[in-house]
Structures are given as C-alpha cells and as structure tokens.
Sequence to fold (274 residues):
Amino acid sequence: MAYEQILYDVQDGVATITLNRPERLNAWTGTIATEVKAAMRVASDDDKVRVIVLTGAGRGFCSGADMNNLQSIQSSGGAAGRSAAPVEEPFDPKSDPSFQLSHSYFPAVPKPIIAAINGACAGLGLIMTLYCDMRFASDAAVFTTAFARRGLIAEHGISWLLPRIVGIGNATDLLFSARKIGAIEAKELGLVNRVIPHQSFMDEVMDYARMLANEVSPRSTREMKREIWNAMFQTLGEAVEAANADMPGSFVSEDFKEGVAHFLEKRAPAFTGR
Fold:
C-alpha cells in the first residue's frame, strides 16, 4: 500500500518502518497510527521479514502527539479525543486482551520489534518505544514523558509499562517532573538497552537486526516474545507451566532440527521459522 506519513522498506530479513514527518519531528498523528499498524501487519504476514525496526526520519524519533491535534481536543472540550477506534482483527487472537488495544498491540506482533531512537523522543512517541521489545538510542537522543507539562495524565498504559522497565521511583520521577534526560541517563535507568554514537547509529542497529534475522530461529523469537509478554500477567508457577506446555512443540519443530544440525556441522544456520 501507499503510505503518506511513514516509509516502509525490507532488506535482509529486516522491515524498517520510519516515521516520516521530519519537519515536525515526526509528531504522532492519526494517519501515522493507522499506517504504522498497517505496516506492522504487512511485516507480520511477510515470511521474508523476521525483525522489525521502528525509527524516525531526520533529527527526531517522535516528538509526541501533534500539537494541532491537542489544540483540536482542547477546543472541542475533549470530544475530538474520544472518537472510537475502528474494530480490527487482532495480530494474535489468542493474545491477552490487553495486547489488542489501540496502542498496545506491539506485544502481539509475532516478530521482534526494535525501537531505533535517533533523536527527540517524547510523550506518545516514548510510549510507543516502551511497547517495543528493545530500545537502542543514539547518543543524540533526548527523552521526556511530557504529560505533566501539558496538564495530561499517564497515557496509553505508560503507568503500567514504565515502572516495570525503570522501577516505580524512576517512573514517578520521569512522569511527575517530565524533565528531559539524555541517552546516557536513559541507559543508566534501564530505559534503553544500548547507546550508540550518532554517526554510526543506524548501521549498528541494522547490524544487530540482521543478526537476529539470520542467525537465530524465528520460531524461537516468536515463542519467546509471546512467553515474555504473557509472563507479565503470570505468577512464576504459571510461567513455568506455560513453558512446559510449549516445550514439546519445539522438540518436533524444523528449527530445532536445524539448530542442532548447523551446530554439529559447523555451518551457518538456515532456519525456516517452522
């Protein structure tokens, strides 16, 4: 399909979705939301795609919700922000209902999603990175929750996500103050996995993404992703039982056979994802 506010590209098993409003620091709009979800579905359904990278064009990742949209909500007394989202087929109908909502569907996408945070990352833009499976930041990236400085709340599940990633004390600091933090502090807090020099940022992100796409089992990453996100709602015992139930299927999978064969034969793997 043709996209207006994102770019979509597939190379070497990696689908790259780029928010493409650089003149507005890729401020989030309804069109971006629709197009990102459509691109995620295309990537999910494409057997050639094994990893998804979400990034931004220009010097920003996403500066948050477009201020024009916020002004419309204000002038309408909030009515513009209460329109019902269209009902769509979930990415995984068996996934927890929490992963079938308007912004929380990333965990149900059956492939690893890497947020490549190339610059400014604020508000709703930050929330979308938290729904990704991992976050790599350029050393030029700057983060803020922003909401408290706009008279808003902890939106779209960030009150659930952020404390699980950085701890309650750090989450309340970042949410209450809405202060800006750099990439190094974000790494120290556990908000991002890696900080990468800006000049080599996308090269290093894509090197890692290609490694995932070509050297590990797509079946393994798919099953592990489901297990990890489901475990957020489980006790340890439930997680153990769920893993035990998944184990027999892995033993008869093509990827298990290939995983053993390529190791013994000392060659590169040729996983099928089955």
Observations:
- Residues 30-45 form the longest helix (16 residues).
- Confidence is low (pLDDT under 50) at residues 81-85.
- The first strand starts at residue 6 and ends at 11.
- The chain is about 40% helix and 15% strand.
